[in-house]
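Course assignment 3, question 2. Fill in each field.
Student: A.L.
Task: Predict the tertiary structure for the chain below.
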Amino acid sequence: MGNEENGGSNGFESVRLHISKNKYRRMDSSDLGESDVNSENEAQNLRKTSTRKYVMASAVFASLNSVLLGYDVGVMSGAVLFIQEDLKISDVQVEVLIGILSIISLLGSLAGGKTSDVIGRKWTMALAAIVFQTGAAIMALAPNFGVLLTGRLFAGVGIGFGVMIAPVYIAEIAPAIARGSLTSFPEIFINFGILLGYISNYVFSGLPAHINWRIMLGVGVLPSIFIGGALFIIPESPRWLVMQNRIDEAKVVLQKTIDNEKEVEEKLEDIQKAAGTMDSEKYEQKAVWKELLHPTPAVRKMLIAGCGIQIFQQITGIDTVVYYSPTIFKNAGITNNTQLLAATVAVGFTKTLTILIAIFLIDNLGRKPLLYVSTIGMTTCLLGLSLSLAVLGQEPIGIRLALFFVCGNVTFFSVGIGPICWVLSSEIFPLRLRAQASGLGAVGSRVSSGLISMSFLSVTHAITVAGTFLVFAVISALSIVFVYKCVPETKGKSLEEIEVMFDEDVQPGGKLELADTANLVRKEPNVA
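Answer field:
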């Protein structure tokens, strides 16, 4: 009995220990599983943070070229006062000096599309910085108007390269969920450059007239140094790499910019399909310009939207407000040069601070709502500026109203049409056309800017400054209609989805089958 009891007891104890061990084993397994999950989540969060920082840094460095354009615009508005005094140039020569940069930049924009397809997006940025740097050095050392104009031509070509390629590069590397805000970075840096130019004018205005403007222009060389360093940090565009059939390199870049390996593979496949390189087919460039000059209905809609918004951005007179703000304030009643330049610094601060608002809103509210706010606000401010100059010019209240409406105009510009025009023109075109079509849009922007800038003083002499801004107000009102009729909403869509969206055949019963659309585009909310 005792042995049986002991045996039974031992048997029961054995079973109890077995159950207990299994219980602890299961607990350990469960604990280990939770630990693995936590570790995996932590690793995923670290990768998301890493990719976010990497994309952000790439967008910032790619936008540095835009500082060059902004600085030139801002600094020339004040430097020209002293250039005219030192070199004894006429008002017509002033108009040519200011406006020629925008006109000649079309050469850089036209060449930029082809150049970026040949040597890559990244090295086109390098070329832009080198050419601009050469122009800035020539301008700073110019002994006469002819040499100064030559330097201006070099600077214009460099700017043409820069303004065209930066938004294209950022759009091709950014995830769709943040593409709007990231692609607006070049406009932010333009505004920052304008502010630096205004500050430079104010700081160096106390020096003798034959020295101060040379220093003002020469300082424009400095941003190129940072651009050179940036090229060793930022990657090449993965879409350009795919176009060159460098698939492995493209995948490496995507792994740095997308936080999910599955999404990397899917995005790479989508890009290959869009580029026509699936199954390792060698990419053969089509006659891009032929397609742009004889567009399909879908491409025509893209061109109207992309190029049209670029032109409206300029013909509403923003560059005249920036270039000729001292003239506007002088017409309002400010006569002292230092006070004039101090007023322009206030405009520069307003323009720079309000562009930051667009970063937080462009991917949340969308493109069209901000465009409506922007164009309606600009129309109101331009009309108010015209009336204040016409009715209250030279009066203290007129000066305050002029400053208020100029700051209001640049505020509404910076919140909407300023950055969004670059976002739209870089994201609505298909990959095969993107660089060239964006270059074409930049040409429209630069030519419009040049024509407006080169004729501003002559027009104001003919119909007064108040009359000129009344014309700008009418044009701005037309831009509201253009946004309503021609500009689509692209918020949250991948570049490949936008291409499909424009295709007129993607309709129920259309030529492009639904299955084909699904294969072409995977609707991932956080993939470029």
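Instructor remarks: Residues 1-32, 277-286, 505-528 have pLDDT under 50 and may be disordered. The two ends are 79 Å apart (CA to CA).
Grade: pending
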